[in-house]
Write a structure and sequence with these properties.
CATH topology: Aminopeptidase
Shape: globular
Structural class: alpha+beta
Strand content: 35-45%
Radius of gyration: 14 Å
Strand order of the largest sheet: 1-2-3-4-5-7-6
Number of strands: 7
């Protein structure tokens, strides 16, 4: 398996294919919520195995250094094997290398405990997307 982080058009297209399957097809979230226009200006982590797409996640860092991790998605056959944790850790390290101090995430409510294992702190409940309650969490990178 190979993990790459970048934002070239081919990588973005592959990330969007994974997200479409997980969010739109499986979870019934309208595609308009996934395609928010931030892909071209974000860092994308992608895990592949030869030609097989496996997982993706996105980190957006704005001009002020504020960052948001989003779109963490693993295709069904690969779930439960630690791949999501691998991709989250990779983006946490990537953020640190780029001078980020705080990462925000809006995660499904049922993933609260999962993200707390990485050091994310629960902030509040936020919007409902599709039928999924999202929560805001933050991760503080120590210098």
């Amino acid at each position: 398996m190979e993990l790459v982080i970048g934002n070239n058009p081919e990588l973005i297209t592959q990330a969007q294919a994974i997200r479409h399957q997980v969010f739109v097809v499986e979870q019934g979230i309208p595609q308009v919520f996934d395609l928010d226009g931030l892909d071209p200006v974000s860092h994308h982590a992608l895990i592949t195995d030869e030609d097989n797409l496996i997982a993706t996640a996105r980190l957006h860092i704005d001009e002020s250094g504020h960052s948001t991790m989003a779109r963490v998605a693993v295709l069904l056959p690969y779930r439960g094997s630690g791949i999501a944790s691998k991709i989250v850790r990779a983006l946490l390290n990537h953020a640190s290398e780029h001078g980020v101090k705080v990462i925000e995430i809006h995660a499904h409510q049922y993933l609260k405990g999962y993200y707390e294992k990485f050091g994310f702190e629960f902030i509040r409940e936020v919007e409902i997307v599709g039928e999924h309650q999202l929560i805001e969490m933050r991760y503080y990178i120590s210098s």
